[in-house]
Amino acid sequence: MSARWHREPSWDRNRREEPVDGQPGRRRQSSTGNRSITARAFSKDTMSLKRNLSACEENFPTVLPVLLDVVRGPDRLAADEESQDLLREKLRLLQADCDGVKNLFVELSAELVSINSEEKSIYVTFKTFEEIWKFTTYYTIGFLGHCLEDLLLDEKVWLSSLEENVGVGVSIQEEALNLFHKGILMQEGSLFASCSVSQMFDSSTSGADLYLEQGDVAQFEPPFLGSGWTVLCLADGARGTAPKLALEPVIPFHQWFLKSCPESILVGNGKPACDFPLQFARGKCVATQTHDAEGPDELSLAPGDVIIIVGPLLSCFDWFTGKKEATGEVGLVKTSFVEATSETSDSGDVFLDTKEWMFESQKEEEIIKESMDKLKRKSLTDAGQNYKLDTIHYQDSENKTGSSSSPDTKPSPKKLRKYIRRILAPEKYSTSASSVTENEVLEDSRQKTCLPCFTVHPVVEGECNTENFTPFFCFLDGQDYKEEFGFLYSLSSDTLSSTFFEGHSDDDELISFLGVARETARKRRLYWMQTRLCFLLGKLCAGKLKFSQARVYFEESLGIPRETFTDLRLLASIYSNLATIYLLQKNRDSFFGVAERLSAFLLGVPDCLKSLEDNNVLKYMLKKAVLTHNKRAEARACYLLAKHHWMKGEGSQVIPYLERLLVVWDEAQRREDISPSHGYLILGELYRKLHLLHLSTSSARRASLQPSAPLSDCLGSMMLVLSDADGRGGTTDQEASVPPQLAPYLYRSLAVIEAQEEEGGSPHHRALSHQLTLCLCQLFYKYKMIDHAIRRIHSLIKNKWSSREVPISASDRNSALIWLAWLHIENNQPSYALDILNLFLVSMSEHCKSPQKGVVLNMRGVALRCMGDHRRAAESYQAAVDVCREYEDMPNWAVAQANLGLLFLKAGAKGLAWRKLTEALQLFSELSEENHEANFITVLLELGQHYVEQRQLEYGKGCYEWALLLAMKAKLADYQLSATRHLCHLYEHESPDQAQCIIYNQHLIQLLRCSGSRAEEGNALEAISQLYLALGTERAYRAALDYTKSSLMIFIDLGWKEKEAYGWLKAGKIHHLLGQTELVDIYVQAAQDVALSTGHTSFILSLLEAAGDIFWDSCQDYEKAVTFYRDRALPIAVKIGSSPSRLRLCNKLTEVMLALKSYAEAVEFAHTAVDISASAGERLNERVAYHRLAFVYQHLEQSELSEHYYLKALALCPSPLQFDEETLYYVRVYQTLGDIIFHHLKDPFDAAGYYHLALAAAMDLGNKRSQLQLCTRLATIYHNFLVDRELSLFFYQKARSFATELNVKRINISADRQRVSMFQHNTQ
């Protein structure tokens, strides 16, 4: 299959890329059946795309794959494999919870079908061609990838890749999309298409055949009930039929526009009357023939006249606006009357400059002020007002002076002190320029024009008092356009009657008055007054639906003799009203003639757009551009349509034309110094009003990425993203913080400011740079990228704050410096923080005790504590407490007391620590205001941990539970998690309580589920499953199974193969415990398959061994245990040369074979275990192996070998014995040897020797029960076999004494006669 894959356009070029593997048509087979079916929907032969359309011959696809990649850099090249794996992991999560993706694609006018994480693809479908049109537009314009970035990129990516421009690249199989489009159009029954070749049709309206050339656009209807194709020619309205066609549907936007276009505009005048060689011409041209102007709007021409093209000359229109170079006259020129010269250029620029993109204007200073105000509300920091709680934990934190982990973040201490001294100098505080942006008042430059109001006098037949018209005539007089005329032309008939005139009872009286005025002006030959009066009369008549009378007035206004028509706004208004009337009266030819002239004015004089009554002429312009395939004319028409609807306040109608304009602009070879960023911002604002927030953010992203985007647009895109984030989260400015997605916008704005400062920046720019930098640093701090934050603030100190003209208030500067000190503390650089804080104290008066001084003293104490200077830290904390006491600052007082308590706790003064922490808790509990709960909870957790370490578990539990209740009340999710984790640890390890532990683990799972931390949720589910499993009841097993399966689903989504494999295995184990043996093999096999898919041999080995343990531990299905141990795990252990695994497996196999009574195989595995342990040189393993081998021979009743290996095991015991367990081992082995010799080898003498050794070890151990057993055995031997009465009596008495102590009632030392006779026979 041959298919082209088109990648989504990057910000600098609409790129088309082939897949990296060079096989664009090939797709990997999906891992699941439904995904395979979805993928196979696209395996049709795409060569059928080149065939003629037929209702029955083509198989149209039902779903469309959207392929995804992580891309980097301006060229949008594929990122490394690690980034692609992260993308797959994110897609796996979305497979399990795809609501976010569904909602996104609904916004993108598509329906989600499935997600394939392995192929990094999303499958979507469409129901109508409008959905395809919108989706294709979003894809082509570059929104699709930006929309997916919010879902697929981790929050930290936005901060870690500011310079790399990381994003999500999207590619779509264009031919499959086109085929999808064709299929839907065929279903809907009517479509617009261009002819692939020139064709003839049987005419149904005239005798001659209909002929369409290649590229001609017409309307087609598919065959119905055996009939042929029906065609409507848009050029002249002719109809025809044909059995078969060769056509290509027009693009979705053209399809939508042509379908929405009224037939009166759509059909007729479709082809240009001339063949000008340039499609979009600028510069100068030359007249080729003589032409006498037929109206005041035209220019008279003579051959050779040089005409300056005003605006563009579009070859698809009959007229253009020109200016005679010789006389300076401006008017309409027929395109067929001129020819191109060397000074005529075919311009590729739809716009001459960036200002033409501006739909609305706003001063840069206003945007800067608005941006700074919003950023301040979003990024308020409490560093300058609130005390910091000392929760800093370094590794080996004591006696540490601090060193940066990154050389870039370690400034020169000497230079840093120099800069800060200059900033904190007293004269800096008193500078009048300290808050330039805050005190500046911006005024609106737009002056509103007030229209006069004229009195309407009654009209008396036969009388004409011309003095009544004098003020009115004075207002209407003048050949040229005036600003107040513009307001007059734009008024509707109702508004005109009510606001511009007074003294009349109804519109008829006003019309009569204006009619008399018109007649008076005509008689006096006041032509411009007469013209404007005719225009007003026409508007009033049109408002009363007297269209024929209105047309007469408008046509009269054009026919009044005068010189050239210099008031082009009036001329455009007349043409616009005439065009509307001609359409209503179905006078198509007249409409086309007026529309051609008005189009020329609209293209040449942009202000004429304000005179339009409706969009009919603009639609006519767009229709002609589409039918003539003139993309630049299409772009200009879309621009005029978008701006017209924008000025009318019809935002939803702006969107399709502005989208198409941006698509054409992006495809064209445009100039780099012209930026469409404002167009993207307008589009984003319109999306936001329609609650399409993902598209709004994507528009802002595209705006900020434009190379020539001005600072105002960069700030506008940033503000738009903030508004979208608020709308998505349902929060207000004060509630929400700065989202991480804002980082690229902050970075881009800073880059633009730096470029402008190289050319000489303003105080506004420096103030803005300060605020942007602080916001960016707060994002770095929030996501633990403190090095980056420090580096940014140091650059700000060096380059901005050190200058004499610092447009930042002293309080803002001080707060930023205090926060910098805190950043150094958290970054393991307390010495740098101490330098900054000491300079602060030096700059303050010694006897001054301001609240900010208390903040500095408290933070200084934290820095000193981190450096190990506990005495000075305590002094600094106490000074901060004194400041709080003086100002009765209870919240900060509580924090300072808590810091003292934590300091004493670290210093080992536990009594003082307990007292200070208790005082801090009392202060916290008395606070009524909010925003102190975080510190309160932190102190409770620290105190609770102290109690737990002191084994005062009830007090510790109370602190933890109090902290949890506070966190729940304040809705602090992170602190709820922390308190719940402490309680789980308490009830699992410190004060074991399975019921409480399960309860808090369940609460922990709920919190993790709300936080969206799938990885932690999976681990928590696994832990609670183990807790239920330990209860050992059937009900507990079933609960454990449910939690195991839940964790298994998460591990599958995360792609954690090892965790997934063990999850399958654990589920199989629980089914085995529940007796559901038919399911065990299924789960174990699934675990084995997942393990094999990882390719990690050691992991596969451990899992196979664990699978065997399930059957061995259950004391059932020993044969299955043998299968996993011997047939699967052991060969892998041998292959990889893992001696510990081989030894462990051989020992297990020995035990299993003994249980199965396969003694020969047990001996084999036991010998192997001995060999492995001996070669490894580990005495303990070797001793265990010998002992197990001896035990096997004991079962085989090969007593000599059993005795031999028991003695070898004893020989490997350490000497001297160190633990009681080792002595007990001696007792049992020697006793076992005595039993073997006595019972099997029938040697009472050697048996007595082993019993004596066992007795000696038992006496050393003090084990009386073992001594009783051994003395009894020895008494029996000496009494019955060795016949030593004295020893027999001695051991019998010893046995009796032990029996008395142990409360054993009877000792039997007699032997049965058969055994005695056997011994006697052996001795003879």
UniProtKB/TrEMBL annotation:
Give me the ranges of the annotated region Disordered.
1-36, 396-415
Q: Which Gene3D superfamilies match?
A: SH3 Domains, Tetratricopeptide repeat domain
According to the entry, every stretch annotated as the SH3 domain falls at 280-343
> What keywords are assigned to this protein?
SH3 domain
Per the record, where are the segments of Basic and acidic residues compositional bias?
Answer: 1-19
Please report a single Pfam family linked to this protein.
SH3_1
| PANTHER family named among the record's database cross-references | SH3 DOMAIN AND TETRATRICOPEPTIDE REPEAT-CONTAINING PROTEIN 1, SH3 DOMAIN AND TETRATRICOPEPTIDE REPEATS CONTAINING PROTEIN
According to UniProt, the name of this protein is SH3 domain-containing protein
The record lists the organism as Oryzias latipes
User: What's the name of its gene?
Assistant: sh3tc1
